[in-house]
Amino acid sequence: MRHRRLGSSAIQVSEIALGSWLTYGGGVSRREAEACVARAFDLGIDFIDTANVYSGGAAEEFLGEVLRGRPRQSYVLATKLFFPMPDGDRGLSAAQVQKQLDASLRRLRVEYVDLYQCHRFDPEVPLEETMAALTRAVEQGKARAIGFSEWTAPQIRAALALPGARFVSSQPQYSLLAREWEADVFPLCAREGIGQIVWSPLCQGILTGKYRPGAAPPPGSRATSERMGAFIQRRLTEENLQRVERLRPIAAELGITLSQLALAWVLRRPEVTSAIVGATSPAQVEENAAASGVVLAPEVVERIERAVG
Predict the structure, then answer these.
(1) CA distance 43 to 39
(2) Which residues are marked as active site?
(3) Are 74 and 42 in contact (CB under 8 A)?
(4) Domain annotation for the chain: domains and CATH numbers
(5) Least buried of 72, 148, 264, 284, by fewest C-beta within 10 Å?
(6) Contact 179, 308 (CB under 8 A)
(7) What dihedral do alpha carbons 132, 138, 139, 140 form, nearest 10°?
(8) What is the pLDDT of residues 49-72, one digit of tens each?
């Protein structure tokens, strides 16, 4: 497993990260979830991403329990705030930053997180208030660094113009089938020392090849799950499935899986620090981890680009 530096920070993270959205504490059994985390560490994945809102706090609680036996310095832990919690708390006000961070630390059973992220931009709270609160969290030692998820370029520039702690990470949805952030956010962040930690690099599993054109989703897949299947439907189109079919021979020629091809394509970009994968079995963790270190030749990248259009 290769590691990369997170933006301008001193934090080193595995280039494959283990995510917990929709899975741990929610859609995946406790036994399988524990096995996924254990296998991730076996393979050198030491970067764990979660959020307070995932399964209403249950994802953080699960991670707090499963990680408590490991030395704190042996893993990098990231969490987020913004979206409504079960009690209705939401947003990026100073009060919420303090309350939600303290609650996350309790659930995670740690004294600090390595990365604290704004899950989205909050237009209802002055940006100065949010950034001052995040700066206090860093100064208090509750967070080593701060980041954001899916902020626009103007929002990022406005935050960078303020005094205090500076963002070191951006977390966009990014994959072969979702590339909206390449045009302005990637270049801006590269200039400002902000690394990309991309989520859904397999596009909710579509890029694994498990879904075939004209066929029903396989039993047990995310698309058939009542708890995990809602978000995949927007991308699960016949057009995207045909794109994936055109990628099959390229992966086969390279002797890698479609998942590994998609992850290697994401990781080839110097702006990308790590790709977050949400595994539901240890076998998926193993397959995804094997993408670390796969180098795609320029001509292969060109073929991939043509295949997805």
Answers:
(1) 6
(2) 54
(3) no
(4) 3-202+266-293 (3.20.20.100)
(5) 72
(6) no
(7) 110
(8) 999 999 999 999 999 999 999 999
